[in-house]
Write a structure and sequence with these properties.
With about 160 residues, the chain is mainly alpha-helical. It has helices at about 5-35, 40-70, 80-110, 120-145. Helix 1 packs antiparallel against helix 4 (about 120-145), helix 2 (about 40-70) runs antiparallel to helix 3 (about 80-110) and helix 3 (about 80-110) runs antiparallel to helix 4 (about 120-145). The two termini are about 20 Å apart.
């Protein structure tokens, strides 16, 4: 995985970033269009996003280690490392902070959110923050795909 050619890193990055874009911008919209029950569509989408988050955490940690290994003592000056750290942080906040709050809120309103209620407003806010973090993560991942993972001195 830590080879000079970087094949393993490219595969991990492809899995993570490709999965982000496929999940967020293809699977979720199709799911909400195809399933009439929005609550069910949301439940399925939530599970898909959660699986993607765990895949991203695994790929991201391995990529982070690979970038650190390749950069050696200059790892702190490697922008790719900081992008990976940011992505991991955003995924972690989404999965381990926002999603539990959303699940708790949904469990407290099994009949669904009443439009205009405080619970609906809180859900909208949490979902909006989660969506924003996902967008930033997918754009950061796209930057890594476009620019590559190799340390600047390796080019």
């Amino acid at each position: 995985m830590f080879s000079k050619t970087g094949v393993g890193q490219r595969i991990l990055l492809t899995l993570w970033v490709g999965g982000l874009w496929t999940t967020g911008y293809l699977v979720a919209p199709v799911l909400f269009h195809a399933v009439d029950d929005r609550r069910l569509a949301g439940e399925i989408a939530g599970r898909v996003f959660s699986a993607m988050n765990y895949l991203g955490l695994a790929c991201g940690i391995l990529l982070l280690l690979a970038v650190m290994y390749q950069a050696g003592r200059t790892w702190a000056r490697t922008w790719q490392l900081w992008v990976l750290l940011a992505m991991l942080l955003l995924v972690g906040v989404g999965e381990f902070v926002l999603q539990p709050l959303i699940h708790t809120l949904k469990a407290a309103t099994p009949e669904g959110f009443i439009e205009g209620s405080a619970a609906a407003a809180r859900f909208g806010m949490l979902h909006g923050v989660s969506s924003l973090l996902f967008l930033i993560t997918s754009l950061l991942g796209l930057a890594l795909v476009a620019c590559g993972l190799k340390h600047d001195s390796d080019h």
